[in-house]
Fold this sequence. Notes:
This protein has helices at about 45-55, 60-84. By secondary structure, it is mostly helical. The longest helix is centred in the last third of the chain and has 22 residues, at about 60-84.
Amino acid sequence: MDSGRNSRQPTLVVSRTPLRISFTGGGTDLAAFYERDHEGMPKRWLQIVKQSIRTVLPRFSARRMVKEYVRDMYVPAMREAVTK
């Protein structure tokens, strides 16, 4: 298969979440993982994780994956097989 025919840029997934991790010495929300309530639950951390999942989840679906596989792999492979 001609790899140039099927070259695509990877998909960039953007998530809107309150989680901030600074690699330059600024603020971070990582401490929220260690903040526990009286039951030992990291409530603020769980809010951050749930928001991350709500934001990114639509990009991760079996339907999207199948459509991309068909478009990017199966269709080009079938076209090449037919032309041989």
